[in-house]
């Protein structure tokens, strides 16, 4: 881009790369060059394709179109062992630490990789305590004993331990995929120092992130992705965080009919007071009957903790929850359901439905008592209701199809039907459109809005600003476990929400 | 797709077509039944001694006790668990039924056997469901513990009950059919009804298939699993009494190795060891397959040592068969 960079040594060259998954184009004709001794940040909103690009660079997946060139490596990089030989080191968002290995064993983990050669007689070198201590010292872990187990370390230390491999393994490209997501401020300084060291050693560092302060404190250039396309590559000194964020967000998708504010006149259906649980701290809010409240925040901001603790899926440290004037302390999801709270999980496959059950069996699972006398199920009554539900929610495949074989959208309809059978006053939805394609989303949105029209209090957790603005009457923005702003769709833009969730500044 | 006005018109048709498909689908999944039929044909042709009233009665008598133990194993496996203590429970329940209160009253003996099974099942269930321990290791411990108690109680000598009618239940027949076999089939029907038609049964399937989803749907997963082990204990205990009744004494070695037979029969019957899938009918057919094979090997004078090897081989073959898809087999045949 700038004249300076063209004189530098090329560390990797991405040429016209596209990556298509069934139904989704994750990356579309991206060309990008990385240089030795430079930190390149890759920024973008959720789903912009940043992690896909990192995975392609690391050779974990192959591009559908285009190619990636690494100087001194004449074939495509495929698989982690190959990547290591080509000099590419990928650091994941979740540090790759083996819990039952000692710190020292984790440092030298690469020694276990046989890079395609199986040599069972190869012995693990012993007595490397001194070398281990030296490596640890280089990443600020001089106080950590090499004999401790991986599982004994906190998230920040784990990430630094993973990063210590940069000192052990030869590499010319270092990929940091949201590596700082789980590190604290304190460890971020160590990461920053490490990146500085790498840069001066002539390594090409690629830093994938959406955290503006971190990007601006270490990157030389910033590549911005939006919906799989490379929007622009800018030099850090020529731009501002606000500019980069505008590039990331782009044009907001036009909303369907804008939700209006629900008057806060009557008694709220759900009141949460000073709730603390997991990463959510001192959370208070209330929802009116007929209102859809959005909770917007990044992954890890404590969004799920709020919903899971209200619905008895997770214990809470303190705080009170009131549903229609009754104080509710749900010990289990069944307890919560009995008291009028339904929670629709983010992890549909694990918690949403039973995998060996048909649509019909899944739909009645939470309300079997409605269809039984003395514990014996009245099949006719059950099947009649199932037929009604199937046509009401337009679930594909009918009552005897296994839910696991359906698309995400249809699975979600089954889960919604199951919970609405319990006739809850409060419906909590955790990422209701996760893994659901655009067409089916509108269907889900309509169902959610009709819930509110029926007078239920609805809370929607989402990591998509557009979805929040399209669906909710009111939006609370969560950052690091605390609410940092309240928005109404009529007077806010996606920009406002993202800004608040990143920087914590109220508009 | 269907509007409410046409739904009532469509229903009868749809139901008729639906039933036909269900029958076809049912037939497609009954490979254990086909194995059994094939075995019966082979048995009929290989020895004339097989299809005789006396031999078939004998076969049913042998199958019934194991059949009830298999039902116990079946319901535990449905939850994704396993109970390898069933054989020892059979042994303990048998000797206690014959020995406690000197075995003077048959109803009392049945009560003792059933309560013994329930108590052991409750301990297993509590450790597995509420303490979160591995079912395999819990019931392995129980296998040794219960068998140890059997030997401690009997000192290795069979226990003779005082009641003169102790053998009555096992030896009586109804219209020429052994009562013990009727009891087995009756219990099979009860368990089938329990798992297929009751809220409890639906909970068992849900807990076995997907614990997290079941819990999230408000199902008391732990108490469901606990109760399953208690039911399994009750069934095994009752089987223990029947075995003692058949033999006439409480034998210390009674029920040894039953866990292997029961697990194999359950698996051959198409129940998934991971839980959440399986039918009682399959477990009954699985039991019969084993009974026919054992019976046939005896009739053909195969050495007792080889009989065990045959049974082991059958387990392996049957399990292998379950991994091969019906359609795939058909395709392979068309190609050759």
Automatic annotation (TrEMBL), chain A:
Which Gene3D superfamilies is this protein grouped with?
P-loop containing nucleotide triphosphate hydrolases (3.40.50.300)
Query: InterPro entries this protein is in?
Result: AAA+_ATPase (IPR003593), ABC_carbohydrate_import_ATPase (IPR050107), ABC_transporter-like_ATP-bd (IPR003439), ABC_transporter-like_CS (IPR017871), P-loop_NTPase (IPR027417)
User: Where does the ABC transporter domain start and stop, copy by copy?
Assistant: 12-252, 256-505
| Xref: PROSITE patterns | ABC_TRANSPORTER_1 (PS00211), ABC_TRANSPORTER_2 (PS50893)
SUPFAM superfamilies this protein is in? Answer: P-loop containing nucleoside triphosphate hydrolases (SSF52540)
Query: GO: which molecular function terms?
Result: ATP binding; ATP hydrolysis activity
Keywords, alphabetical: ATP-binding, Nucleotide-binding, Repeat, Transport
Q: Which residues cross the membrane?
A: none
Q: Which Pfam families match?
A: ABC_tran
Q: What is this protein called?
A: Sugar ABC transporter ATP-binding protein
What species was this sequence derived from? Subtercola boreus
From TrEMBL, chain B:
Segments spanning the bilayer are 31-53, 59-77, 84-102, 108-128, 135-154, 174-195, 225-244, 256-274, 281-303, 309-327
Where it mainly occurs, coarsely classed, is: membrane
What single Pfam family name could you report for this chain, choosing any that match?
Answer: BPD_transp_2
Keyword Coiled coil part of the UniProt annotation: no
Q: Which domain of life is it from?
A: Bacteria
Q: How does it sit in the membrane?
A: Multi-pass membrane protein
CDD domains linked to this entry? TM_PBP1_transp_AraH_like
Per UniProt, the keywords (alphabetical) are: Cell membrane, Membrane, Transmembrane, Transmembrane helix
What GO MF terms are annotated? transmembrane transporter activity
Q: Which InterPro entries match?
A: ABC_transp_permease (IPR001851)
- Localization of this protein: Cell membrane
Q: Name one GO cellular component term.
A: plasma membrane
Name recorded for this polypeptide? Sugar ABC transporter permease
Natural source organism: Subtercola boreus
Taxon lineage:
Bacteria, Bacillati, Actinomycetota, Actinomycetes, Micrococcales
């Amino acid at each position: 881009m700038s004249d300076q960079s063209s004189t530098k040594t090329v560390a990797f060259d991405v040429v016209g790369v596209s990556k298509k998954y069934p139904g989704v184009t994750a990356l579309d004709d991206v060309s990008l060059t990385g240089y030795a001794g430079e930190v390149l940040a890759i920024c973008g909103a959720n789903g912009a394709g940043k992690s896909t690009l990192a995975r392609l660079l690391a050779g974990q997946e192959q591009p559908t179109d285009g190619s990636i060139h690494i100087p001194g490596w004449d074939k495509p990089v495929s698989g982690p062992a190959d990547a290591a030989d080509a000099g590419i080191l990928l650091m994941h968002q979740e540090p790759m630490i083996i819990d039952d290995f000692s710190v020292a064993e984790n440092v030298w983990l690469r020694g276990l990789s046989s890079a395609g050669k199986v040599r069972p007689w190869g012995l693990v070198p012993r007595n490397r305590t001194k070398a281990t201590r030296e490596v640890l010292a280089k990443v600020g872990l001089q106080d950590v004993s090499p004999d401790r187990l991986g599982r004994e370390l906190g998230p920040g230390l784990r990430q630094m331990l993973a990063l210590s491999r940069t000192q052990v393994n030869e590499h010319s490209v270092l990929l940091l995929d949201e590596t700082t997501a789980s590190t604290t401020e304190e460890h971020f300084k160590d990461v920053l120092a490490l990146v500085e060291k790498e840069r001066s050693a002539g390594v090409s560092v690629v830093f994938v992130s959406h955290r503006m302060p971190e990007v601006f404190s270490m990157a030389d250039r910033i590549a911005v992705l939006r919906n799989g396309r490379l929007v622009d590559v800018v030099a850090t000194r020529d731009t501002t965080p606000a500019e980069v964020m505008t590039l990331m967000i782009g044009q907001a998708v036009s909303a369907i009919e804008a939700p209006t504010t629900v008057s806060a006149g009557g008694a709220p259906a759900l009141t949460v007071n000073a709730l603390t649980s997991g990463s959510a701290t001192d959370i208070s809010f209330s929802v009116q009957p007929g209102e859809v409240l959005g909770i917007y925040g990044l992954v890890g901001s404590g969004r799920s903790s709020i919903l899971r603790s209200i619905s008895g899926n997770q214990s809470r440290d303190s705080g009170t929850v009131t549903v229609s004037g009754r104080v509710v302390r749900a010990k289990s999801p069944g307890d919560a359901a009995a008291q009028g709270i339904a929670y629709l999980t983010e992890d549909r496959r694990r918690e949403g439905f039973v995998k060996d059950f048909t649509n019909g069996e899944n739909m009645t699972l939470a309300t079997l008592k409605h269809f039984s006398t003395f514990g014996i199920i009245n099949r006719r009554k059950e099947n009649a209701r199932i037929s009604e539900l199937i046509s009401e929610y337009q679930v594909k495949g009918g009552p005897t199809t296994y839910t696991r074989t359906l698309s995400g959208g249809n699975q979600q309809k089954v889960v919604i039907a199951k919970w609405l059978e319990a006739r809850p006053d409060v419906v909590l939805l955790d990422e209701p459109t996760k893994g659901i394609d655009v067409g089916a989303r509108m269907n889900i949105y309509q169902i959610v809005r009709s819930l509110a029209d029926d007078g239920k209090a609805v809370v929607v957790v989402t990591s998509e600003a557009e979805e929040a603005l399209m669906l909710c009457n009111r939006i609370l923005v969560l950052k690091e476990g605390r609410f940092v702003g309240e928005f109404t769709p009529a007077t806010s833009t996606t920009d406002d929400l993202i800004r608040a969730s990143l920087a914590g500044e109220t508009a | 797709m269907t509007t409410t006005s046409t739904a009532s018109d469509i229903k009868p048709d749809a139901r008729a077509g639906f039933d036909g498909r269900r029958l076809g689908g049912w037939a497609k999944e009954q490979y254990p039944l086909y194995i059994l039929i094939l075995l019966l044909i082979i048995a009929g042709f290989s020895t004339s001694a097989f299809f005789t009233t006396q031999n078939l009665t004998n076969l049913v008598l042998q199958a019934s006790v194991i059949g009830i133990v298999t039902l116990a194993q079946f319901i535990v496996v449905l939850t994704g668990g396993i109970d390898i203590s069933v054989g020892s429970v059979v042994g303990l329940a048998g000797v206690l039924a014959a020995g406690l209160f000197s075995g003077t009253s048959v109803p009392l003996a049945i009560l003792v056997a059933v309560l013994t099974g329930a108590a052991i099942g409750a301990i297993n269930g509590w450790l597995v469901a509420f303490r979160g321990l591995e079912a395999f290791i819990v019931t392995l411990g129980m296998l040794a513990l219960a068998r140890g108690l059997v030997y401690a109680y009997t000192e290795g000598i069979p226990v003779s009950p005082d009641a003169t009618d102790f053998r009555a239940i096992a030896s009586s027949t109804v219209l020429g059919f052994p009562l013990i076999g009727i009891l087995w089939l009756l219990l099979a029907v009860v368990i089938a009804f329990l798992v297929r038609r009751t809220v409890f049964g639906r909970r068992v399937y849900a807990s076995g298939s997907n614990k997290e989803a079941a819990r999230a749907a408000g199902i008391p997963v732990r108490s469901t699993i606990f109760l399953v082990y208690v039911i399994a204990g009750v069934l095994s205990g009752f089987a223990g009494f029947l075995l003692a009744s058949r033999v006439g004494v409480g034998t210390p070695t009674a029920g040894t190795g039953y866990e292997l037979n029961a697990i194999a029969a359950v698996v051959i019957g198409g129940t998934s060891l991971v839980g959440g899938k399986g039918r009682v009918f399959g477990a009954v057919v699985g039991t019969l397959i084993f009974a026919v094979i054992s019976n046939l090997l005896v009739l053909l004078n195969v050495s007792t040592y080889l009989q065990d090897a045959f049974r082991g081989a059958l387990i392996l073959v049957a399990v292998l068969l379950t991994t091969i898809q019906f359609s795939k087999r058909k395709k392979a045949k068309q190609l050759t």
